[in-house]
Each structure stands twice: as structure tokens, then as C-alpha cells.
Amino acid sequence: MTGGETWKRRFLTLQNLGLHLYGCRYQLIPFHQKLLKALLQKLKQYKVRAMADIVINHRIGTTKGNGGMYNRNDGILLAWNEHAVTSCTGGLGNRSTVDNFNGVPNIDHSRRFVRKDIIGWLKWLRSVSFQDFHFDFARGYSAKYVKEYIEEAKPIFSVGEYWDSCNYNGYDSHRQRIINWIDATGQISTAFDFTIKGILQEAVMGQVWRLRDPQGKPPGVMGWWPSRALTFIDNHDTGSTQAHWPFPSNHIMEGYAYILAHPGKPTVFYDHFYDWDEHSKASRYPQPSSVRILESQYNLYSAMIGDKVRMKIGDGSWCPTSREWTLATSGHRMQCGKSNDSSSIFPFIADPFGTGECDARHPSQA
To answer: What does the record list as GO biological process (predicted)?
Structure first.
């Protein structure tokens, strides 16, 4: 969730909206539909954008079909038979050409009737005031279908979860795969910057030098294509109760000091914002287009972002020497300074879902 009273826009991701029985009940049962609409209207009243968690890679069936698997969906919304399930996950559809979500029937998006039904469902989500989409497990179906779904349903903002293994000593290929996915959507979706999450959580544990790539830029998608990089340090999969890949708990504020002060579209995890009570007091002004990394050592990272903000993380000693700079905020192993002609602490973008910032030329456009 992005949040804070000083943000121009906030959004809350609502989970469990996949094409399974639990998710479909909102459209099937009038009482549940009424509750959902009331919730969405209340969010809108408080200027919170509702983002739907679009789980369309896999679907648990209601009835056993081919091979004795639960690969049929009978008697519910979007009643599909085994032909809607890929042949490599127990169905009678086409074989998947991308990654499988193991252990459950995976949806065959190459089927026209499947895409038609999904588009109808996405349009319904938009009609009840969902404004934004989060595409879960985006590795599990071709990005060209994401492009089709976005063009047909017209969400205001979209982000894809393209998460695979990262080699910390050769992460360019990792961020390039994310960029390739964005390109394949027609460049109309953003993506979670899993590369910067991985590098950042290694950096704060004593390898701060990793935060400058060989070209002197930030690592991750943010270093190549910031307007398409949604930065984060944890979400409901990596952290929280699932904790598949959690950010080091004693370095949380270092992580936020970094992503909130750097280009990209930063988000704050719901658990950190509410359960940890880590409310940001930052104000906002237009997103800078440049990052000048001043120090990148094993125990110190410092950078000048735009011409208004300087920050550092790590145990190393560093502070601006000019009297034109004032300490704005500090915490465990982190400090942020602002120029005296700026009223802001962190450079939040005025429109966190816009595409107006200046991007570096990324390899897929070379």
C-alpha cells in the first residue's frame, strides 16, 4: 500500500479477487457485491485508489475432470471445462510456453473464450470502481495477453509481478528480463522492481557498495527505466506471515530511506505502515530525473537526488559540508538532508502513477 496523509494519491490492493470460487462470489452473490461496492465507495470518499489483485494464472476447479484433477469449473461464474487448463498442468488446453505455477491447474490464455471471459470480468471490476490492477505471477502467461487485458479493461494504472531468481553478482540480466516483460506489454504496464529489492537487502547487511552499478547508476529497473519501476521492500508474499523473501527487519527504515528518496514509484508495505506504525512525514514535489551517487563503499552509500535531496545509509560517516543543506530526518543507519530552499524531505512525485519523469535509455530500446 502507498500511504501517508501527505501523499496526493494512495492505493490499497484488495486480494482474493482471482477467478476461483472465493473471488467470484463478489459478482455472484448480491449481498457480497453490495458490501464490495460499499467498501470501494468508502475508499473513494477518502481518496484511496482501489487496486484489484488480478490472479489469472491459475484456478482451482470445483469439479474433477480429466485425469481425476479439479480442472473443471461448473456452476459458477466463468464456467470452464478442461480445455481452459494447460495440458502440462492436467488440462486439455495447449501446452504452456511460459512458467507454470506448480500444483494447481494453470489457465490457458491462448484460448479465445478464456480471454473473452477474463476481459468481461476485468471490465466488471472497473465498473464497480476498481481503478488499478496488480497482475499476480505475471511469469505464468504471456505479456501480450496482459497488454490485451489492459487495453480492453482500461485500468488507470497497472503493475506486473515478474519475480524470478536473481544473481547478485550479475543482476543486469535479471532487470533486463523485467524490462523485456514491460516491453512485451506494449510498455503500458509497470513492474515491481524485484532487482532493487534483492540488491538493497543485501546492501544494508554490509554490502552497501552494491548500490552503484558499473555505469555509476542505481541497480535495478529504477536505474534504467524509473517510470516503469514500482519499488518496494516487502509485500504480502515476500514479508508478512508468508515471509518467502523478507527484508531484514532491523534495516527497514534504511530501505525506505533509499526507495523513497530515489526515482521510481515507491510503495510502503501495509504491515510497515500500520502494524509497525512507521508513518512517513514526508511531503512531496516533482520527481527528480537524476541521481548522482557520491559514495558507495562497504559501509556507506550517499547520493544527491535531483538538486534538493541528499541522503545516506550505512554506518559510515558522511554529511553535506555546505551550509545550504539542513538535516531533515534521521534514524538507524540513515540520514536525509534537504536544501534550504526546499520544504520537502523526500522527493515524492506529485503524481505517483504518471509517466512524466525523464528515463535513461534502457537496453531494450538501444
So the answer is: carbohydrate metabolic process
Q: Which residue do the cell numbers 506486473 mark?
A: 160
Contact between 300 and 312 (Cβ < 8 Å): yes
Name the packing angle between helices 172-184 and 143-153 (round to 10°).
Answer: 40
Q: What is the DSSP string of 26-50?
A: HHH-HHHHHHHHHHHHHHHHTTEEE
DSSP for 79-118? ---GGGB-GGGTSSSPPPSS---TTSPBB-TTSHHHHHHH
51: three-class secondary structure by DSSP: strand
pLDDT of residue 156: 96
C-alpha cell at 181: 516483460
* Amino acid letter, 300: L
Q: CB-based burial of residue 46 (10 Å sphere; 0-12 exposed, 13-18 middle, 19+ buried)?
A: exposed
Q: Per 3-state DSSP, what percentage of the chain is helix, strand, and coil (rounded to 5)?
A: 35, 20, 50
Task: Please give the angle made by the CA atoms of 241, 245 and 249, to the nearest 5 degrees.
Answer: 70
- H or E, element range at 127: helix 112-127
For 168-181, what is the mean pLDDT?
A: 95
Mean pLDDT for the chain overall: 84
- Concerning whether 357 is annotated as a catalytic residue, the answer is no
Say how far apart CA 126 and CA 122 lie, in whole Å: 6
Place of cell 519523469: 357
* Spatial strand order in the sheet of 334-339: 291-296, 301-305, 309-313, 334-339, 325-331
| Candidate list 53, 108, 161, 213, residue with the active-site label | 161
Comparing CA positions, the residue from 301, 232, 317, 227 lying closest to residue 266 is 232
Annotated catalytic, 136? Answer: yes
Among 82, 108, 136, 213, which one carries the catalytic annotation? 136
Query: How much is the pTM?
Result: 0.87
Residue 182 is predicted with a pLDDT of 98
User: Measured between alpha carbons, how far is 58 from 137 in angstroms, rounded to an integer?
Assistant: 9
| Sign of CA pseudo-dihedral 163, 280, 256, 293 | positive
C-alpha cell at 208: 552497501
Structural domain spans, the chain? 10-286
- Which residue stretches of 217-294 are H helix? 221-224, 252-261, 270
